[in-house]
Amino acid sequence: MDVTGCAKKESKGWSLSTILRTVLSVPRFRVGVQFLMWVALLMFVVDTVAAGNGLTLSKQSRDTLAVPQWLYLATGGATIGASALLASFVTDRAFIRYLHSWSRTLPSIERWWDPLVWIGHGLGVAALVLSVFLGFAGPQLPTASLTILLTFAGVRAGLPIVTYFVGNVWPVLNPWRTIAAILPSGYREYPDSLQRWPAVGGLLVLVWVEVIFPISTVPTVLVMVILIYSTITITGALLFGPESWFDNADPLSVLFRLYGAVAPLQRENDEIQVKLPGSDLRSSDVVTDVSDVAFIIALIWELTYSGFITTSAGVTTVETLVSFIPAMVANVEVRAVLVYTILFVCGYAVFLGAYWYAGRLSRRGTGTYITARTIAFQFAPPLLAIAAGYHFAHYAGLFVSLSPALTMALTSPLSPPANPLVLSPPSWFEGLGIASVLIGHLLAIWAAHAVAYDLFSSRLVAIRSQYPFIAVMIGYTVISLWIISLPGAIPPYLS
Amino acid sequence: MEETPAGTCEHCGHPFPTSERLVLHKGIEHPSQLDDSEQEAFESAVTEEEADLRTLRLKALAVLVLLYFGLLILYAIFA
Ligand SMILES: [Zn+2]
Fold it and tell me: Under 8 Å CB-to-CB from A311, ≥6 apart: which residues?
């Protein structure tokens, strides 16, 4: 298009109207105008909703909402619906492609790369060794134990935040990868048919263990879990080779790779590129198998689940369900574990089913010959933005409140203060949670819009194809906004 | 959906339920392989699409306005 523009300029004279026409025909100009219009509209809607939510947020306590709960939830759902409608105003293919392929290459850090990687390797291995040693020999108070603080404030809360805001550094930090890389490995071929299913299973098991066992409060229990995880990981990595193990079977590596797809910094061909956040969610190589979809839904579900069981409504649900099981079946702890497990598995099945059904509806609604499978694969990466938003809503507060304790434990791991400082996050953190859930969904809507345009040649069909997924996203938003608004509680029956 | 497609792309073999969508597909995915009549068909399909998109935008705008005032009224009553 630029070429024809230049040709026009030269062949005709420079009358005012030709200049004007030339300027208007430049794609970037059109793109800019459309972008400004979109931002203005979006700001308008978000502002309105934020003002509405502000009514609830100005109150310190969660149970004295100035706005009835259903209205707060309806507003959240409406925001997602409204932004999907707004996205449908953007119909310029060139503009969508331009925004999603915008990138700048950072100055080469080749000189620094090797030392940085070695520092990362060293830090990772040192953290693992220290965690195991201090879990047994260090202080047993949860807020003074470096093992617990590194695992929960570090790997569970802080590192995913860094990953989706900056970029994925896990391949460098991953201590198990560093250890496996220097040992002889690759005795078996990784079975291709397994794809990422071992990682899906691993993630679900890790979350289940986190709920059932007191790993966030008793360092020795956590160390046992770390040791079991290390044994499985190193054995797998040596058996199948680190490359295929950490790409396919290791839940933490897959988790960080997927969260990393949201990030603005991406490494491509030894260069680091800055992109707009979430632009990689459109690329078709993030999800290549059903197991990847299952993993992404598991990320959303585990955050929803661990959020839910730590609220008053979650506690009531668990208590009611436990009382349904006759007492003679087993003692109360066993029944509670059963209830937690059933809730966990059933909820995951519902989330997965809802997404898969949306894929089928989208296919039926558009009458396309593209398979429901392909549609479901393509629309799955945008959900990662939602997962990142949930994660931030649930863990930013934890990270802030534990960071002074983590700093203290790092400076004196063996002789921590008797009374470690635990901050309570300021009240506006609740607002930050709501905002991050909404922003994650907006990013997902926008990425899904770009995906639809890549998938369908007809723009009307592209817009129609998104409806079922938008409905699913509205469902996810309402559920997570509801969980955030509930008063917190301690899950019953668990030590 | 499982009935016979209205047309199949001769360049990549993908079937399409309507001939308009086939024309759009060929124009967007295989622009260099169009002959004159296909080019013409593509251009008129795009023009038609623009008109449909305009209608869709109007509908979307109407829903947005409804949503906005609906929420405004709800807030006025309940908050
Ligand atoms: Zn084709």
Answer: A483, A486, A487, A488, A489
Show residues of chain B in contact with A38, CB under 8 Å: none
Q: Where is A20: in which H helix or E strand?
A: helix A16-25
| Tokens found for residue A168 | 């994925």
Q: Which residues of A touch B (CB under 8 A)?
A: 45, 48, 52, 55, 66-68, 71, 74-75, 78, 81-82, 85-86, 88-89, 91, 93, 363-364, 367-369, 457-461, 463
Chain A nearest C-alpha distance from B36 (Å): 20
Residue ranges per structural domain of chain A: 100-485
Q: What is the dihedral of CA A451, A456, A457, A459, to 10 degrees?
A: -80
Phi, psi torsion values for A413, nearest 5 degrees: -65, -30
CA geometry: angle A341, A472, A163, nearest 5 deg: 70
Continuous H helices in A269-311 = 290-308
pLDDT in tens, A273-294: 888 888 888 877 889 999 999 9
CA distance A10 to A22: 11
Cα-based torsion angle of the residue sequence A342, A343, A345, A347 in order, rounded to the nearest 10 degrees: 150
CA distance A164 to A278: 9
pTM, to two decimals: 0.87
ipTM: 0.90
Please, are residues A156 and A395 in contact by the beta-carbon 8 Å criterion?
A: yes
Mutual angle of helices A383-411 and A290-308, in 10-degree steps: 60
